[in-house]
């Protein structure tokens, strides 16, 4: 085998530390002059791809891909500073949003063009929390999938993925090519070091548009209204365990 | 006024600027005040044709590194800040991580194992680190802006090959100028160097030397010919462990406690002639040049500190603390103070980044650096003091970091030239410009 060709799709989202606010018109979350960064689950994906290579799994190329506004270029550079070899940026207009199915279709084309044999995605992006793209992509490609990975091992073309499920861990085994989605416990993403940031400057970043892919990405969903969750009401303090049991009974929870 | 325009005319012509120049924003009549930058300007192009951009704009690389450093500082340093301050010691793993991240080799070229970035990147890193811990920040500052720069600029090829890869990966550096007898009057230093068969012998001692506990590499200024007064000052490289080199005392301090500050003695320290930095009798020039730009680093440490103190308090007053049925940050008395503080922080940052960009562009930046350091340290002092008050009792206790920012801020008005010395520098430039 000539080495894995890994594709890592990443998304630029409102930074996880920022408290999202709903816009006045209640149509979306406020994004203007709000700090954005790489979707945290996607950092795990990049990190895992780089670690596979560091663990001497034969990896011939790690390609980071993002469809997003011009600023998405920043997260592609970050991905390259973390160790991706090159980047592909499909430029979208500032407010243009793709739905999971649209992204999956787009990724299918990219996989075909790049001859990828492993796609590592975040299990969800923290803006829409849809958690669908990886699965849809696997379906479209007809590939095996392992979602919410907490450990990935690759030997030859055999992939072992561990995932944390209720009450324990589940181990899946599949053959390449496949789609893996990442979960929080998979690894701890590195900080891009200064020398690597400089190296990333020299790595190729290809700019594309949706037209280059000839996919039908027509949105099928309509957002009716976006609202903040109701404010939490203050709780009550109980004296002791008996007090708590009594309270829970009173509330009908026991 | 007539003489000012006369003075500026040749500059205006040289720079081909069509906009009218006002004294406050123009270069002082070019050759009169030497631009004492110790690193070559990165941009050898004529910047007069480039459309001006907001001074706070960072290049893509600078922005990326600001982000990465900020994340690193939050995750890896912040949890240790209180403990390091209480222990009055830098955690060795932090030092190790600083090297790993490339933060100790910002401007060292790739060929020597460094990051090969520009001066402003170093400034950005120093500011980001100070937001979380001014002690870690000054370690990085001194190592990069004083020590690395000195070798990059004046080191022989052999010295560069020998030391730059170490300074980039595992060896902390110190800059030894001040002595018990020479602080503000730095060139009154009494440490003596004498020539020997194979090199030099150094006798004397230094005081208040940052990084000296962690450092293995010291740039030492000594007078090779006291008859020449300050023109006898020469710079040498000394390794820790050289016989006769000793750390006499580690100071206990008001602030930046995790940053080591020591008294160092030199007792017949023999160093080989290869360890002469640059040329004999030029040490005073090197020191001036280094401190001129190093000052921008200290200014960035202070704006970072001010930001850190502000953000720490802002988080509390606008989220946690309620009095009289309201978040305390909702009282107008608080809000106006905070708005004022924020404005001052941004004004200081504009001075800092402007000084850094001017240095990079190869323009004279000496007065800009002095103004940046003067003002940034004043703002840091004011804001961190107010931030303690905004947080009330919670600001005063050693559980949080508010009181630490306050203590740490004081050093900004002292090292790399006290505030009075900055004022003197600024006034000298002004007098030169306005003397008819
Ligand atoms: C924590 C710390 C770290 C340091 N790190 C280093 C280091 O790594 N390397 C190094 O070489 N040095 C270092 N220093 C030394 C530092 O640069 C000096 O302390 C500083 O230059 C001031 O000198 P001084 O302490 O002798 O004060 P002095 O010069 O005695 O000044 C005392 C007061 O007199 C005022 N004053 C003095 N001269 C004048 C004048 N002409 N006009 C008006 N006012 C004047 C000053 O402004 C000040 O207010 C460090 C100091 C500290 C505290």
TrEMBL record, chain A:
Keyword Magnesium: no
InterPro entries referenced in this protein's UniProt entry, alphabetically: ET-Flavoprotein_bsu_CS, ETF_a/b_N, ETF_b, ETF_beta_N, Rossmann-like_a/b/a_fold
Molecular function in Gene Ontology: electron transfer activity
Cellular location(s): Mitochondrion matrix
Pfam families reported in the protein's UniProt record: ETF
Residues covered by the Electron transfer flavoprotein alpha/beta-subunit N-terminal domain: 26-217
GO CC, alphabetical: mitochondrial matrix
Alphabetical GO biological process terms: amino acid catabolic process; fatty acid beta-oxidation using acyl-CoA dehydrogenase
Gene3D superfamilies xrefs: HUPs
Cofactor(s) demanded: FAD; AMP
Cofactor note: Binds 1 FAD per dimer. Binds 1 AMP per subunit.
Primary location group: mitochondrion
Protein keywords: Electron transport, Mitochondrion, Transport
Superkingdom field: Eukaryota
Role according to the record: The electron transfer flavoprotein serves as a specific electron acceptor for several dehydrogenases, including five acyl-CoA dehydrogenases, glutaryl-CoA and sarcosine dehydrogenase. It transfers the electrons to the main mitochondrial respiratory chain via ETF-ubiquinone oxidoreductase (ETF dehydrogenase).
Assembly description: Heterodimer of an alpha and a beta subunit.
Family to which this protein belongs: Belongs to the ETF beta-subunit/FixA family.
Protein name (Swiss-Prot/TrEMBL): Probable electron transfer flavoprotein subunit beta
Organism: Delitschia confertaspora ATCC 74209
TrEMBL record, chain B:
E.C. number(s) listed in UniProt: 1.3.8.5
GO molecular function terms noted in the UniProt entry: flavin adenine dinucleotide binding; short-chain 2-methyl fatty acyl-CoA dehydrogenase activity
Organism encoding this protein: Delitschia confertaspora ATCC 74209
Entry's transmembrane regions: none
Protein name as catalogued: Short/branched chain specific acyl-CoA dehydrogenase, mitochondrial
Signal sequence extent: none
Keywords tagged on the record: Acetylation, FAD, Fatty acid metabolism, Flavoprotein, Lipid metabolism, Mitochondrion, Oxidoreductase, Phosphoprotein, Transit peptide
Assigned protein family: Belongs to the acyl-CoA dehydrogenase family.
Acyl-CoA dehydrogenase/oxidase N-terminal domain sequence ranges: 59-169
